[in-house]
Known about the structure:
Layout: H1 14-27, E1 33-34, H2 46-56, H3 71-85, E2 95-98, H4 101-112, E3 118-123, H5 127-135, E4 139-144, H6 160-164, E5 166-171, H7 184-197, E6 200-204, H8 220-224, E7 232-234, E8 237-240, E9 243-246, H9 259-262, E10 269-274, E11 287-291, H10 293-306, H11 312-323, H12 327-349, E12 362-366, H13 375-386, E13 388-389, E14 391-392, E15 403-407, H14 412-425
Helix pairs in contact: 1-13, 2-11, 3-11, 4-5, 4-10, 12-14
Amino acid sequence: MQFAKRLQPLQSNVFADMDKAKAVALSAGRQLIDLSLGSSDLPAQAHVIEAIAQSLDDPSTHGYLLFHGTQAFRQAAANWYEKKFGIKVDSETEVLPLIGSQEGTAHLPLALLNPGNFALLLDPGYPSHAGGVYLASGQIYSMPLRSENNFLPVFADIPPDVLAQSRMMVLSYPHNPTAAIAPLAFFQEAVAFCQQHNIVLVHDFPYVDLVFAENGEWGTSLRDAPRTTSSMTVGSREWGSGGVEEKAMPYAPSLVPSVLQADPDKSISIEFFTLSKSYNMGGFRIGYAIGNAQLIQALRQVKAAVDFNQYRGILNGAIAALDGPQTGVADAVATFRKRRDTFISALHRIGWHVPTPKATMYIWAKLPSPWNHNSVEFCTQLVKQTGVAASPGAGFGKSGEGYVRFALVHEPPLLETAVERIAQFL
């Protein structure tokens, strides 16, 4: 049987490889502590589950759901975005529901790339970003992320001949796997660069809420973003063009900027969101895109050829999440912050000094000698000998070699146990 050449780059990935190593450890009787996958172990909120449960008894939710039937969800997403970032969004032309944001990042290259066109991707980066480009028969130019540059790409390093054939750039901050964050000034530079070279700017934004404010510092998104007529609330303080007043609202502004704050006219940008991280709804596969109307329409055309939408009850649950109390989001952030501090402190106690991340649910750790040039072997041997599973940095791209990613998806006592086992292994 003959298969398309585009499948060849998709034959293996970091998660599949680690699944095999975990299976070997389990068969040998190891107690597994899986820190390799960024799948939240926290539950979805009760009001979200209730909205889905009530939908099950409504026969009108049982049929196919086409685009116009998603209007209530699209409006909820637009409202959420406007209150968080202060930028107006047209729910009819600038929002598209997705079966998880990964559907968007995988399908958009089909709408933008002709065979041989380049996509500019972060290295290291999330593997599905590359997968979509391969499926579109595109080429990848990897933009290296280095610690000395705060894990931000240097646009000036991209060769002119690559730029001439480039049609899209994919960014994602807070970043998986490095946990780096990017200031608004970086996004402004990226927008100007992409406008200059006629490149679509794609921002994958799953960790919009998993950001840890330090000592009351609210980040560049509040200090530097243009003033708008929309208001934003931190605690009980409302920030807007009319000054500050005491007024409670269910939304808090993001501590990290949206790419559309750097491109408020949505001239070349599209941003992908998911409810997997903020609302612990990974298994429900619900996300959405916001951005340039032409890009939304193009992605909608691809989507129409591939699938319908989710069950309407899932969208009803998502509406409840976006419109309802946001205390669950705050609780999730507090949980992952506590886990971060526990894990970092434990690593420091065993002499493995890694920086404290300001966002995401990950620890990006530079490997000690003699493992610093073979992250795959480190992770394979670690899970084999101790049952602790992590993700090798090389699985996220060439520039990830020499690092390992730990996902903070267990409670602090189990994280402490994991570090004890790592200490024995080292």
